[in-house]
Amino acid sequence: MAQLWGGRFTKETDQAVYDFNASITFDKRLIRQDIAGSQAHVKMLAKQGILTEEEARKIDEELEAILGDVLSGRLEITGQYEDVHSFVEANLIRRIGDVGKKLHTGRSRNDQVALDMRLYIREQVDETDAGLKKLLQVILGTMEENLETYMPGFTHLQKAQPTTLAHHYGAYFEMFKRDRQRMADIRKRMNYCPLGAGAMAGTTYPLDREYTAQLLGFDGPTLNSMDSVSDRDYLIEFLAALSTVMMHLSRFCEEIILWNSNEYQFVEIDDTFSTGSSIMPQKKNPDIAELVRGKTGRVYGALMSLLTTMKGIPLAYNKDMQEDKEVSFDAIDTVTSCLSLFTGMLETMKFHKDRMAASAMNGFTNATDAADYLVGKGVPFRDAHGIVGRLVLYCIEQGTSIEKLSLEELQGISDKFQEDIYDAVSLKTCVEKRLTIGAPGREAMEKVIALHHRYLDGES
Q: What pTM does this model have?
């Protein structure tokens, strides 16, 4: 078909060049945004007297009809069109004739595609935020139910101090909460309308850019036409934020994979989120967690791809920028599916609480509390540290744990140990006496959980 820009050319574009240049195979997902932008543009043109009210009404109605036909399957977006913008305009002209040719007045494909991507990414920011909020609700529900589910906390992947499942999950609540805050920051910064910037230097038509921005839900128009058509910062920020979401998901998945192993047996992943082996009948594999972990690199790749594409581009618009879409669409689809599946896996996962508590007791996670006990008996901390170190070494040699030693054995290492040592090093005591805000003690955790509820309810 003849191109919308073909007037200056005397030869048809080589088919290989046309195919290489075309973006219709991937930018067709912007059809809703392209129609919405065109409808706002037409309303503004009529308001400014550039089009008559009747012309604007006719174009607006037919744009709505084209969208309806596409969504219903009556009209197919095919490769005969260069891009989604050409598809819409060509079909509009075919249906209503010369009036349709007025749609593009005061507009370039450069500011048009800039608008479409902003509208699309703004919507995706909102959808990602909604997915994160749902995940936070699941995490918070698990926290409330497990204030006394004791487990080992780790540093260097070595058992460190006892904590609770609620406290452990609370760390991820903070991570995904920050992810939501990043979404809000991105949305606020990107919410300015580039339509009306033209190809790169505005237009001679008396456009009302403030009105167009208002119609499309933006906070106002962009303030430099060259930056308007060449800015992809908001997209880079979004991909960076998605990469951080995936990093958090991947860390959580790694822990679930460990917890699900035969060596840990802290959790059991529901059958609906697991797979088996084609040769080993006993296997139940944490494939969803592994795939989420694996797909993190895919999203990182999209971010690096766009950063690399943009690093050497002079002002203003260049065709290189067309490369922003495929990698971004893939990253968005990946994060959307990972968030949804991970949330479902988390919601259906079961915990082996006795196994978690036993692991905490068998790993000397109460050693610090034993040292604190001696400090309470007047022993300087550095000396207490050495005493408990010898105590742990003795337990290792005897194949036992601190709380299983007799008082006679304990006093053989230090006469400061009394009968109350057993209560002092119990999991419950070790956790419950940690009451500073942010610590795993029940009182501290209940305050934090109340704050989290207020946050999710929009009160803070």
A: 0.92
